[in-house]
Structures are given as C-alpha cells and as structure tokens.
Write a structure and sequence with these properties.
alpha+beta; binds fe (ii) ion
C-alpha cells in the first residue's frame, strides 16, 4: 500500500508498528527501498571549480598564520559544495591544496589512507617515501601509498604547492583509519636519488623481483615523460572522441592502476578539439596542467586556466573544448569500482 493511500487510522497503525520495530532496531524496507536502490546513480556531489587565482593568495596568507610543522600539513581542503564540512571533493575522495614554504618540513607520519600529489608550482622540493627523496616539479605525480612513511621538505628558495588526493572518505566508510607519528621529524634517507626510477621507471624490472603489491613501487611519475607520450600520440594516433588522448598511470609490475584505491590519469585535448559528451560512475577530480579551455559539467560551464581544479560528479555528462592544447591531470575511485564490477561509462 502506498503511504498516501493510507487512511488516518492506517497511518496511526503503521506509526505504532514502526515504533515497535524501531524499539528493536529494525525498520521497514518498503519505506526506503526507492531511495536505497535507484534506477541510476544519485549523488549529492556538485560540479565545482577552484581557480588557482583564488586559491593561491588565500593559501599564501596561511603561511603567515601557521607553519607546516604546527599544522602537520598546511592544506586548504577543497570541499564539494554538495558535501559541506565533509572534507570531501567526491563521496569517496578528498582533495586539498598544500603549501610548504622554503626551509620548512612537513613532518614524518604514515596512515592507512593512500595519497597522491600532483605538483602545481615550485621546483625541486622533495617528498621522502621509503627512505627515498623524490624531487617535485610542476606536473609530476608523486605517490605515498597506504601505510608508507612520508615527509615533505622544501630546501629551495621558492614555495612549493601541490594538490593532494586521498581516499579518506572511502577508508572512513570502511572504518579502517590508522595514523602513526614518528619521533623523528624526517625519515632517514636510505636510498640514492633516483633509486625507484632506475629500478622500475625504465621499462625494466629487477630480474628476481619480489612479488608485486597493489601499490606501484615507482613513487614518482615525471611530467616530462607523460607529456612527451601525449604529444607523440597527438601527432601519430587517432583521438578518442570523448577524451582526446587519455592515458592512465600504470603499476610497472602488474600493468594495473598505480594505486588500488585511486586511479590517476592524464589527458591531452588538442587545440580546437571539442570532446563528445561522456559520463562514468567514478566522480573525477581534474587539475589543469597546461592550456586553456572550457568544461561543461551537467549545466555548469567553467573556463579553465593552468592549475585550476574542478570536479565532475559521478554519472553526470561532461564535455571539454580546448582553446589551446589542454592537458588535464585527473584522479578518481575507478580502480575500486572496476575491482567490484561496478564501473560503467556512457558515451554521448
Ligand atoms: Fe600524510
């Protein structure tokens, strides 16, 4: 019986019955089923943009208010307007913009949440992971997988700013959050500079390599290599109608995504190209590496400039128009959805 068809007497009877159920920690599925199992994805996540021209001065203001060490991490969280105060940019993911000033160290810790860093500004500051210092330059992707010790240091003369992506909400959903701090502000450097790149970043693998884990052993993916691959493909391959040229960052031992919970990717939309509408079940966070253009997400249009960030909610149509060669870094929870057999895409 539909609730609106009930008589007053029935309604009171239902209410009394539901109260008795509630007292025993039960509830009637028929009142909520339509909202639990929807015909298509329904999300509170909204399209949103953070222009670097707005973010940077506010971030720099924080440098005078709190040090990286006091803050543990000096970050402005990018909050999805559809998820106020949830510290989430999508339902599953967190994103923030982090600043480390010259001479500062963001101290060592490790946590069950996996993190990726996409460098927006600065040259040569470092993230240390597993005893290896990884230099950070604009457009580089640096990984700090789950439960790996990491600290950040800026021994250069200029600020470094990057976008953090973490699987915080996903880990929270599973109640699997742990963090550990260290007595040592910075971890000991035990590996030579370039160690993981030499072992895993040259299309070679150590001959007697230990079994792979789900996390890539390659901790830094330089921008110049990704960019040159995109440029070659732009010149010599067909362009995807929905993406232009889009590549994912791979785990060198397995060929799978570089991380199990977050899938980083990079795409080039050639100058003048307008993509066909596209949607997928993974809500995605984008940062502009290069170029200018326009993105339309649902009914919202954002003009894009370098270092701007925007988010496209799950299962919402999006299309891009590149005014000049537009390079976008992106990450989403697609690896999780694929493993669970949930991921879908739709091409307009
Ligand atoms: Fe961290």
């Amino acid at each position: 019986m539909e609730p609106q068809a009930r008589s007053r007497t029935d309604t009171e009877e239902f209410a009394r019955y539901y109260a008795r159920l509630g007292a025993k920690n039960m509830a009637p599925l028929w009142e909520v089923l339509k909202n639990l199992v929807t015909r298509e994805p329904v999300t509170p996540v909204l399209p949103a943009q953070w222009k670097f021209a707005d973010v940077r001065p506010l971030l720099m203001e924080s440098a005078a208010m709190i040090s990286a060490e006091q803050a543990e991490r000096r970050v402005l969280v990018l909050e999805n307007p559809g998820l106020p105060r949830a510290s989430s940019i999508t339902h599953s993911l967190y994103a923030g913009i982090q600043l480390v000033m010259p001479g500062e160290v963001a101290p060592q810790h490790r946590h069950s949440q996996a993190a990726l860093r996409y460098v927006l500004e600065g040259n040569g500051a470092t993230t240390t992971v597993d005893g290896e210092r990884l230099e950070m330059y604009p457009g580089d992707l640096v990984l700090t997988p789950s439960w790996h010790w990491h600290d950040h240091q800026n021994e250069t003369k200029e600020p470094i700013i990057w976008m953090d992506g973490l699987d915080i909400a996903l880990v929270s959903l599973l109640d699997a959050s742990f963090i550990e701090h260290s007595n040592r502000k910075e971890q000991e450097v035990t590996q030579a500079k370039g160690a993981s790149r030499a072992k895993y970043g040259a299309n070679l693998l150590p001959i007697d390599d230990s079994p792979a884990t789900l996390n890539s052993p390659l901790m830094r993916y330089p921008y110049e290599e990704a960019r040159s691959s995109l440029e070659h493909l732009k010149a010599h391959s067909d362009w995807d109608a929905c993406h232009g040229i889009r590549m994912r960052y791979a785990h060198p031992q397995t060929g799978d995504w570089a991380m199990p919970t977050m899938g980083p990717a990079i795409q080039l939309v050639p100058k003048g190209f307008a993509t066909a509408p596209y949607r997928s079940t993974d809500g995605a966070v984008f940062a502009v590496a290069e170029g200018h253009g326009v993105v339309t997400v649902a009914d919202t249009t954002f003009k894009l400039a370098p270092k701007d960030v925007f988010v496209a909610p799950p299962w919402v149509w999006r299309k891009l128009h590149a005014e000049d060669n537009l390079v976008l870094f992106t990450f989403s929870d697609r690896p999780v959805q694929e493993k669970l057999g949930l991921w879908r895409e739709d091409r307009g």
